């Protein structure tokens, strides 16, 4: 678990690249400058960890591009102490960003291998979500609802109703919707029944899968 000044330098460069791509939220950029992304991926990719690239992690999944993570984090406008539900823990990198933004994080992963790996790894490097959940993100987490923010980090074929119902009024759900490519979709709950919807461009995620393995 080595983190060196060289890694730090590469992280600063990555933050500048993200700034050039339109990430202007300083708290998000500071999280990128701080989190040792090279420790979240296989050591054979270590030299490339601070390029704006996605990499394979366990169970045929990927760690998202830093730009995608930063974009989703910026759009969510997470404030200190907010209750955030993350669907698709994966490597835990997005989880670490949410924790750097001082959110109270609940994170769900449906692949047991990743759930186990990441729930052991994150606390080792000092990142402690309120709860790691092994389960199906389509259902959300009704027992801890409502949430200020819900972030989905897998491509969803449709917007799950359960997630909309678990938002506070004023809360935001950010979810990539589509099959091959996805449209990043932001839903803001205006009242018990009203949601405002914004489409924020095309992205590519691994699919959000319905059944547990
Ligand atoms: N933010 C993560 C993204 C990982 S890829 C990262 O950057 O590392 C998406 C993750 O969503 C995968 O780990 C996948 O197993 C998980 N996933 C897919 N369908 C899911 C579901 N229905 N519920 C919870 N997690 C799911």
Automatic annotation (TrEMBL):
Keyword Transferase: yes
GO CC field: cytoplasm
Any one GO molecular-function label of the UniProt entry: protein-L-isoaspartate (D-aspartate) O-methyltransferase activity
Swiss-Prot/TrEMBL keywords: Cytoplasm, Methyltransferase, S-adenosyl-L-methionine, Transferase
Pfam families on file: PCMT (PF01135)
EC number from the UniProt entry: 2.1.1.77
SUPFAM superfamilies, per the entry: S-adenosyl-L-methionine-dependent methyltransferases
InterPro entries hit by this protein: PCMT (IPR000682), SAM-dependent_MTases_sf (IPR029063)
Primary enzyme class: transferase
Location relative to the cell: Cytoplasm
Catalytic site: 64
Recorded superkingdom: Bacteria
One example of a Gene Ontology biological process annotation: methylation
Catalytic activity: [protein]-L-isoaspartate + S-adenosyl-L-methionine = [protein]-L-isoaspartate alpha-methyl ester + S-adenosyl-L-homocysteine
Task of the protein: Catalyzes the methyl esterification of L-isoaspartyl residues in peptides and proteins that result from spontaneous decomposition of normal L-aspartyl and L-asparaginyl residues. It plays a role in the repair and/or degradation of damaged proteins.
Similarity annotation: Belongs to the methyltransferase superfamily. L-isoaspartyl/D-aspartyl protein methyltransferase family.
The protein's name: Protein-L-isoaspartate O-methyltransferase
Originating species: Tenacibaculum skagerrakense
Gene: pcm
């Amino acid at each position: 678990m080595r983190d060196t000044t060289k890694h730090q330098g590469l992280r600063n460069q990555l933050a500048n690249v993200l700034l050039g791509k339109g990430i202007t939220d300083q708290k998000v950029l500071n999280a990128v400058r701080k989190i040792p992304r090279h420790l979240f991926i296989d050591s054979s990719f270590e030299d490339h960890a601070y390029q704006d690239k996605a990499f394979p992690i366990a169970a045929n999944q990927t760690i998202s591009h830093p730009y995608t993570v930063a974009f989703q984090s910026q759009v969510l406008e997470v404030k200190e102490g907010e209750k955030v539900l993350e669907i698709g823990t994966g490597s835990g990198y997005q989880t670490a960003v949410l924790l750097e933004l001082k959110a109270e994080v609940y994170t769900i992963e449906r692949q047991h291998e990743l759930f186990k790996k990441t729930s052991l790894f994150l606390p080792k490097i000092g990142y402690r979500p309120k709860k790691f959940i092994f389960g199906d993100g389509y259902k959300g987490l009704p027992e801890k609802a409502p949430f200020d923010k819900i972030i989905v980090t897998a491509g969803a074929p449709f917007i799950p109703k359960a997630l909309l119902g678990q938002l506070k009024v004023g809360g935001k759900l950010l979810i990539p919707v589509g099959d091959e490519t996805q449209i990043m979709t932001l839903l803001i709950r205006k009242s018990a029944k009203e949601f405002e919807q914004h489409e924020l461009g095309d992205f590519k995620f691994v699919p959000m899968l319905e059944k547990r393995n």
